[in-house]
């Protein structure tokens, strides 16, 4: 790379104070100290909070609230994948397996009939454990399993890593069939309504939050939605903090330039394995949340693979290496899928709802290609570029 | 550490890539406070030498830093021992801002003076201060080279390895760069091992130099001697 027209950077090797060099003024960042940006984000966050905290659970039918919960946990799994793929550059198409693992651990702990058959013994993994109590267990189990898979993943990169993780998605359903004894001896662990009922202490929440507005939030769908909303909020905050932390910079450095990362003292193996573990924990917790909506844990080859792809799609569509991108992508994926599934016109066109269902992935794929063509850096990246263009025009009008 | 132990002592160093051996047993030292330059044509083994010292490729022989062997040590451990490597092609992280790049340079440090060090290097490299919130990838080649050096200095190294800092830079930028490196060495006593093709500028700031030819040391001497050595002048100064 030779730049002949380059100007010399004004460098002066004068240590602090020598020439009385004035402190360099800090220019405003792209989003900082911009009144338009501040007002916009304030209005958007108030409206967003009202919509998600109050409007959705109070006004929508249970099936629609469940759809929002599903969008939240698909977005959460994509957020976890973002830690690994977006920030650390390790592509995984096997996160459906971690998602499934989380779902199974939660379901097995909550259910009193299902058990794991391992080493000639039956492991119940707990009976009637409350949902929230299963979450720390899921987090730890997925952290450990994620790290165990992260170690062999150190040896492979790029497409090869994608293939290895694909194997994970294919293998996981077979493992559940081999070891899990759920409803009727199958690998499906179904939960009863009583298992999924909100805990007793949840009753005073409606009094505090909703009674002044005379609404009811005691139902299962609303409980599931609120749990998902709180968990997602906390875990998004964590990603926001990680992205700006020492560990976050290390993730990006390893992704962009392994040699440079090593020369500043970063232990590549430790960073990559940590990313794998953390990412698996996010996907596992997303799987736990899915139990509240699906009322079961189940794994089939096709489903686990499809989920893994869905997480990747949500991540890429929303915007890799951004905090909110994967969550936005999760909502788009879930609602787009739902919308396609409901299209009566497709059904008329093909005289069969089964065929229309088959068509939905095809339309989904085409939509994805079109989207990537116009927004290669995802929704968040694309809107950032658009915003920059708008603000630049305003400050520097074309003359 | 006794005074007669060199900061870096390399002896009988052999290294290469897979079946291809590039270095055939080279010896050199860097004393505290010295700028040592390694000259050589393309393919002579300059970059390989630095990579072998910082543990990026397997090597045989002796590599001692402050009297302790570094051979077989992982690159991140070498960095933590006090050797900062500015790789060829700079290795700045394009997506991170200038400030984030500098903070990354202090990755191995756990003290509270990181922020004040960042400010210090902004004063030495004012262009970096002006662009602190800018993405590193959007800067010119010269600015990125400054950033790569400042990032290396953020680890408070005892020795900096510079791999062809002039690569791809305009002549005037290269001159500026070497002037800063020279001042850094004079004012802070920082030791440097510089690999360069631009022999004139490199010898201008160096104490001693080595000429590498096909993986062995061909000529060695003080910077002044090398600058007047006929063979060196013919081969590397184009005179």
Compact summary:
The complex is a heterodimer of chains A (399) and B (239). With 399 residues, chain A is mainly alpha-helical.
SSE order and pairing:
The complex is a heterodimer of chains A (399) and B (239).
Chain A: H1 35-59, H2 62-87, H3 95-110, E1 115-118, E2 121-123, H4 131-153, H5 158-179, E3 180-181, E4 189-190, H6 193-196, H7 204-210, H8 220-243, H9 246-256, H10 258-263, H11 268-294, E5 296-297, H12 301-318, H13 325-341, H14 344-350, H15 353-374, H16 378-395
Antiparallel strand pairs in A: 1-2, 1-3, 4-5
Helix pairs in contact in A: 1-8, 2-8, 2-11, 2-12, 2-13, 3-4, 3-5, 3-11, 3-12, 4-11, 5-12, 8-11, 9-11, 12-13, 12-16, 13-15, 14-15
Chain B: E1 8-17, E2 20-30, E3 35-40, H1 46-53, E4 59-65, E5 68-69, H2 75-81, E6 83-86, H3 98-105, H4 114-124, H5 126-130, H6 141-153, E7 159-163, H7 171-188, E8 191-196, H8 199-205, E9 208-213, E10 216-222, H9 223-228, H10 230-237
Parallel strand pairs in B: 3-8, 3-9, 6-7, 7-8
Antiparallel strand pairs in B: 1-2, 1-4, 4-5, 9-10
Helix pairs in contact in B: 3-6, 7-8
User: What are the secondary-structure elements of chain B, in order, as H or E?
Assistant: EEEHEEHEHHHHEHEHEEHH
**Distance linking N and C termini of chain B:** 43 Å
What's the assembly state of these chains?
heterodimer
Q: Order of strands across the biggest sheet of chain A?
A: 2-1-3
Residue share in β-strands of chain A:
under 5%
- The side-by-side strand order for the widest beta sheet of chain B comes to 6-7-8-3-9-10
Number of helices of chain B: 10
| CA radius of gyration of chain B | 17 Å
CATH class of the largest domain in chain B: Alpha Beta
Which fold name is given in CATH as the topology of the largest domain in chain B?
Answer: Rossmann fold
Strand runs of chain A, count: 5
Helix content of chain A: 55-70%
Low-confidence stretches of chain B: none
* Structural class by helix and strand composition of chain A: mainly alpha
């Amino acid at each position: 790379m030779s730049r002949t027209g380059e100007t010399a950077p004004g460098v002066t090797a004068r240590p602090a104070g020598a020439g009385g060099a004035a402190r360099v003024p800090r220019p405003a960042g792209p989003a900082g100290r911009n009144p338009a940006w501040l007002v916009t984000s304030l209005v958007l966050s108030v409206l967003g909070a009202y919509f998600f905290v109050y409007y959705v659970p109070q006004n929508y039918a249970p099936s629609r609230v469940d759809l929002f919960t599903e969008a939240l946990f698909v977005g959460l799994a994509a957020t976890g994948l973002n830690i690994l793929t977006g920030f650390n550059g390790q592509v995984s198409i096997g996160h459906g397996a971690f998602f499934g693992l989380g779902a199974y651990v939660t379901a097995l702990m909550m259910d009193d009939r299902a058990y794991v058959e391992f080493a000639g013994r039956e492991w119940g993994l707990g009976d009637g454990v409350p949902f929230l109590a299963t979450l720390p267990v899921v987090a730890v189990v997925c952290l450990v399993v994620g790290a165990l898979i992260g170690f062999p993943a150190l040896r492979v990169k790029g497409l090869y890593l994608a293939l290895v993780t694909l194997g994970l998605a294919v293998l996981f359903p077979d493992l559940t069939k081999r070891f899990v004894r759920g409803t009727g001896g199958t690998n499906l662990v179904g939960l009863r309504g009583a298992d999924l009922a909100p805990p007793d202490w949840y009753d005073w929440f409606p009094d505090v939050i909703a009674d002044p507005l005379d609404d009811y939030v005691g139902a299962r769908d609303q409980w599931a939605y609120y749990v998902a909303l709180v968990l997602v909020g906390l875990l998004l905050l964590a990603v926001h903090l990680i992205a700006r932390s020492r560990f976050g910079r290390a993730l990006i450095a390893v992704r962009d330039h392994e040699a440079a990362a090593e020369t500043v003292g970063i232990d590549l193996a430790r960073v990559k394995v940590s990313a794998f573990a953390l990412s698996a924990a996010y996907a596992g917790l997303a799987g736990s949340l899915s139990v509240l909506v699906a009322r079961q844990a189940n794994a089939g080859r096709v489903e686990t693979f499809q989920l893994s792809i869905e997480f990747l799609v949500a991540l890429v569509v929303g915007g890799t290496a951004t905090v909110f991108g994967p969550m936005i992508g999760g909502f788009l994926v879930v609602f787009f899928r739902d919308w396609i599934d409901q299209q009566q016109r497709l059904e008329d066109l093909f005289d069969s709802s089964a065929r229309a269902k088959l068509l939905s992935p095809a339309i989904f794929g085409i939509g994805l290609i079109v989207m990537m063509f116009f927004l290669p850096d995802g929704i968040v990246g694309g809107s950032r570029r658009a915003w920059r263009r708008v603000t630049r025009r305003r400050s520097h009008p074309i003359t | 550490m006794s005074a007669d132990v060199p900061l870096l002592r390399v002896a009988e160093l052999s290294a290469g890539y897979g079946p291809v051996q590039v270095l055939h047993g080279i010896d050199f030292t860097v004393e505290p406070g010295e700028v040592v330059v390694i000259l050589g044509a393309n393919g002579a083994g300059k970059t390989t030498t630095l990579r072998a010292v910082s543990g990026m490729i397997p090597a045989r022989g002796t590599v001692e830093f402050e009297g302790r062997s570094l051979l077989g040590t992982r690159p991140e451990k070498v960095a933590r021992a006090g050797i900062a490597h500015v790789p060829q092609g700079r290795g700045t992280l394009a997506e991170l801002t200038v400030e984030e790049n500098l903070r990354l340079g202090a990755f191995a440090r756990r003290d509270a003076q990181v922020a004040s060090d960042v400010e210090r290097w902004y004063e030495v490299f004012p262009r970096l201060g002006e662009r602190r919130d800018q993405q590193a990838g959007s800067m010119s080649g010269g600015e990125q080279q400054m950033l790569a050096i400042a990032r290396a200095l953020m680890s408070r190294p005892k020795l900096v390895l510079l791999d062809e800092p002039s690569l791809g830079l305009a002549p005037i930028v290269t001159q500026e760069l070497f002037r800063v490196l020279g001042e850094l060495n004079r004012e802070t006593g920082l030791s440097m091992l510089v690999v360069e093709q631009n022999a004139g500028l490199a010898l201008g700031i160096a104490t001693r130099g080595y000429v590498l030819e096909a993986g062995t040391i061909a000529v060695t001497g003080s910077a002044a001697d090398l600058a007047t050595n006929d063979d060196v002048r013919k081969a590397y100064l184009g005179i």
